[in-house]
Amino acid sequence: MSRVSVPCHVKGTVALQVGDVRTSQGRPGVLVIDVTFPSVAPFEHTSTHTPAKWVTCLRDFCLMPDPHSEEGAQEYVSLFKHQMLCDMAQVLELRLILRQPSPLWLSFTVEELQIFQQGPKSPSMTFPKWLSHPVPCEQPTPLLEGLPDPSRVSSEVQQMWALTEMIRASHTSTRIGRFDVSDHFPLRGSLWPEWVRSDGLLCCRWMAVMT
Amino acid sequence: MLQEESDLSLIIAQIVQKLKGSNLYAQLERQAWASLQRPEIKLESLKEDIKEFFKISGWEKKLQNAVYSELSVFPLPSHPAAPPEHLKEPLVYMRKAQGSWEKRILKSLNSMCTELSIPLARKRPVGEQKELLNKWNEMGTDEPDLSLFRPVYAPKDFLEVLINLRNPNYENGDSLSFRTHLGLIQVPLKVKDIPELKEFFVELGLTTGQLGIDDSTQVPPELFENEHVRIGQKVLTEQDSAAAQQYIRQGSPTALRAELWALILNISSHPEDILYYEQLKTNVIQHDLLVDSLIYKDVKLTASNDDYYFVFEDYLYQVLLCFSRDTSVLSHFAYNSASPPKSYIRGKLGLEEYAVFYPPNGVIPFHGFSMYVAPLCFLYHEPSKLYQIFREMYVRFFFRLHSISSHPSGIVSLCLLFETLLQTYLPQLFYHLREIGAQPLRISFKWMVRAFSGYLATDQLLLLWDRILGYNSLEILAVLAAAVFAFRAVNLMEVTSLAAAEAVLADLSTLKVMPLLQIFLFATVT
User: Superkingdom of this entry's organism (chain A) (predicted)?
Assistant: First the structure.
């Protein structure tokens, strides 16, 4: 199941505070982050539309087990569809409400916010493309230089096979001359030496490449 | 829950991938092939029959031990968006602090190098190689001139760095308020309090038998000791790592300790391991590193002067010199907040293709480093086994004692745990020591950094390290440090200076570790 990144625009954080932000000495303990989705088409008014409303999809999700200590302070967190309390189809806007009751921290927020949605299930993904869409006139890339064209070799092999079939069918007792193949067959496997730097020391590793 | 299932399959996939490259995998494959000859393996039920064969022959146990070892050592797979630095250390300011500390160490090493005009590494001439090979087993008799060398850093330098560690997002006001910590450590890491420690160390409770308490001469052995030894022998016959780790929480009988530790650390002596050690020995003979002189100096200053460990001087060289050249140690930097220092081949400064890690294992020894190895010499006499045990202990535990990290077993958490325990349960003592300018951490830091090696009597130290292995955590070091202060509280209340406090706590060699821990955790009235 693939996932597709949804482009989102994160608006600036808004601190919720009682009284004037400038004169008050305490720090705000609640932060609101709004996330809009520019790719979602603007809502059109029709005579039968249902008004858009805010629905709580996640409640009291704890990010830091102890608000006064560093545990979980800089962690990566994922939230999934199955954790949501409501259906997540047709989301127009997302609002994150963050609470940090401890006065020990100068600021708090979430960063690197990314939203994903489930990618479309496509049947062509289940087997390789070349099988479903064969390219007729594709020039195959040569595996190794200095080797004959594979189609020429296969046609020669076919000719040899046709000859043997003809001889078998004719049942003569005349002696068959030697068959000779002028070009070399490609190697079934080759060994490549490779100098690999691992752990800062130079070492040599032989790798077998199997066709 | 869907999320837990996918987490579990991720962990399984990670462990399978790690074990696939190991020796055990090749052996299991070979065993499976060989088992096809056996009459009980039928083609129709091939998979089940081979699994049954593994169970009976003990190979399944070996695999279980390997999986258990992976789970104990490597952290759980992290979030897919998390970069590798996050796995090393999640908090950015700690990563920065570790980075600048490493720069300082490297600068110190480089300046020593240029002062003495000694290269960081050089190839030994053939004559010198032969000489070293001949006296490999008695390197202690060598008396090179080490007067110009000095240790790169000592624990007290590291303590100063930890004292200055600050979270920039934390309220670090100058005036004393409820926000400032009264001890030296000023970062708000989560540490356990005594109720949580009681739960964590439940097997050390008053009603459970302990080696170190219930095997003393006054207690008849039929009450606990005999049965405990019998269970230990059974655990060894079963060769079960997890059972051994649970068993050793109550201490290990002296006769079984070497094998039990090897079982818990999942060390078995295969010919490949002995060969690997010999290869490291060859590296030592062929090349001379600057850190070798640092190791010599450290051993001469610390272990050679110790009454218990001076006899093992030669072993220490054999282990530590090989340790600096062991590149397999580099893999532990994936979960260590530290990073191995890089050096460039002469004339190619800054070019990544010519960068190598220096020393090859990425660990620069500090003053007292050899004390991590010394107690192990009592248990293992074969150099390659001793080496493997030390290496495994280092990449599981000891590296946390000298790198800056937020891990619960990291030295910063241990210091904070010690200070918090002392402040909460001995507030008068803490206040008094603070007033006379003798912050308790200044005295106990050196104990914890060395895991008490060289401060306790050897048998007591080994009982302590039994519990480190049993609980897979270093927190017991902080608890013991607090327990020592609690034990000597009466004397400490009467001192009036830091020097006098140090004198009261100078000699720990007569202390019995397990009673102290038990009393502090379970018998102190709070």
Answer: Eukaryota
Task: Give residue-wise pLDDT tens across range A67-82.
Answer: 889 988 898 888 888 8
pLDDT tens digits, one per residue of B109-120: 888 888 888 888
CB proximity B63 to A under 8 Å: no
Please report, for residues B71, B282, B392, B395, B396, the alpha-carbon distance to residue B389 in angstroms, rounded to integers and kept in the order given: 18, 20, 5, 10, 11
Tell me whether residue B37 is in a domain: yes
Domain membership of residue B448 (yes or no) is: no
Query: Is residue B36, in this structure, part of any structural domain at all?
Result: yes
Measure the CA–CA gap between B430 and B410, rounded to whole angstroms: 23
CA distance linking residue A44 with residue B117, whole number of Å: 79
Rounded Cα distance between B175 and B275, Å, is 61
Q: Are B436 and B484 in contact (CB under 8 A)?
A: no
In this complex, which of B3, B167, B190 lies closest to A71 when CB atoms are compared?
B190
pLDDT digits (tens, 9 = 90+) for B174-190: 666 666 678 899 999 99
For chain B, say whether A69 makes contact (Cβ under 8 Å): yes
Q: Which band of pLDDT confidence, cut at 50, 70 and 90, is reported for residue B19?
A: confident
Task: Collect all residues of chain A within an 8 Å Cβ-Cβ radius of residue B86.
Answer: 74, 76
Q: Is A5 on the interface with B (CB under 8 A)?
A: no
| Subunit contact A74:B92, Cβ cutoff 8 A | yes
- Kindly determine whether residue A69 and residue B189, on different chains, have CB atoms separated by under 8 Å: yes
Report pTM.
0.82
**pLDDT band at A181; cut points 50, 70, 90:** very low
Rounded alpha-carbon distances, angstroms, from residue A85 to A57, A92, B135: 5, 17, 73
Residue-wise burial string across B456-487, b where 16 or more C-beta atoms lie within 10 A, e elsewhere: bbbebbbbbbbbbbbbebbbbbbbbbbbbbbb
ipTM, interface predicted TM-score of the complex: 0.81
* Residue B222 resides in a domain: no
Closest chain A residue by Cα to residue B169: A106
- What's residue B176's pLDDT? 63
- Asked if A105 and B171 come within 8 Å (Cβ–Cβ), the reply is yes
User: Are B357 and A112 inside 8 Å of each other by CB?
Assistant: no
- Rounded-to-integer distance, Cα B403 and Cα B100, Å: 12
Q: pLDDT digit string (tens) for B265-312?
A: 999 888 889 999 999 999 999 999 989 999 999 999 998 888 889 999
One-letter amino acid at A56 equals: T
- Here the tokens at position B377 are 């010499």
Q: How far apart are CA A114 and CA A157, in angstroms?
A: 57
Q: Which long-range contacts (CB under 8 A, 24 or more apart) does B339-346 make?
A: B339/B88, B339/B98, B339/B99, B339/B102, B341/B102, B341/B105, B341/B106, B341/B109, B343/B120
Measured distance CA(B493)–CA(B186) in Å, rounded: 25
Measured in angstroms, the CA of B339 and the nearest CA of chain A are apart by: 13
Question: How far is B523 from B72, CA to CA, in rounded Å?
Answer: 31
CA distance A165 to chain B (A): 40
Full residue range of the structural domain in which residue B39 is found: 1-76
Structural domain count, chain B: 1
* CB-closest option in A69, A106, A114 to B171: A106
Residue with tokens 């009459």: B39
